[in-house]
Amino acid sequence: MTSDNNIELHIPSIMGFEKIAMECSASVAKKMGFTQDRIEDLKTAVAEACLNAIEHGNKMDTNTKVGITLTVEESKLQVSVKDQGKGIDQILTPSIENKVGGKENPRGWGIFLIKSLMNEVSFEPSPEGGNIIKMIIYLEK
Amino acid sequence: MNKEIQVSISQKDDVSILNIQGDVTAISGETIEEAYQKVNTNGAKKILLYFDKDGYINSGGIAILIGIASESRKNEQKIRITGLSAHFQKIFNMVGLTKYTEIFPTEELALKDF
Fold it and tell me: Comparing C-alpha atoms, which of B17, B26, B21, B10 is closest to residue B49?
């Protein structure tokens, strides 16, 4: 814990460790009172953001880390995922038809899923280098 | 860190069932692909993918399933899915996998009139 409403964790750039961030986010969301449906949405979004950071940001370099910051507010939870990479060149909208038809790589669903499942998503460069994806999910009452 | 995957193959009448236990990711995908190739080699035309309700599926795993959907079209196979949690049913709908496969709530319903 870094302050009253912030939780930080760092995971190595190794596939599978995204589940640590996923479970931590789920625990926080549960404590805040999110419904199970929304917790599942959050878990997928956090896992995908971490996977992007591990694979595309940090290029699976085991000397690098992925930083996750959870910021708890009364009506929302913000999750920031930071890598140490150079950024994503272009974010294409995936097409299932093109992927099944062999015209597109079947991968590339991460950002699509994050945007579909979270209330707000933004991308920005980190002042210390690397990139940050910020995701916000609102608590519905 | 990921739950190790186990894929077993069984047969019910003319339907080949791939029972997928564990996490479906880019890493574990090879095991699913191998099982698919096995039933494909045996001439399967109807394939049921039976997922673990508690399993974790990520975008890497979805890509593996898209690969199978793609191959099944070429091989004129029908693919049905069961065992998915409500969340992953929603995810499969979102990405459009349901245009190429059908999702059923139970194995019994999936096998009916396949």
Answer: B17
pLDDT in tens, A57-74: 999 999 999 999 999 999
Asked: is A3-138 a CATH 3.50.50.60 domain? The reply is no
Alpha-carbon distance of A96 to A98, in angstroms, equals: 5
Instruction: Mutation target for B interface from A66, A99, A118: give the one with most B CBs within 10 A.
Output: A99
pTM of the predicted protein model: 0.93
Can you state the percent helix, strand and coil of chain B, rounding each to 5? Answer: 40, 25, 30
Instruction: Give the B window 33-52 contacts with A, CB below 8 Å.
Output: none
| Residue B64 C-alpha, separation from nearest chain A C-alpha, in angstroms | 7
User: In chain A, where are the structural domains located?
Assistant: 3-138
ipTM: 0.92
**Among the partner residues A19, A107, A116, nearest to B94 by beta-carbon distance:** A116
CA–CA min distance B2, chain A (Å) = 5
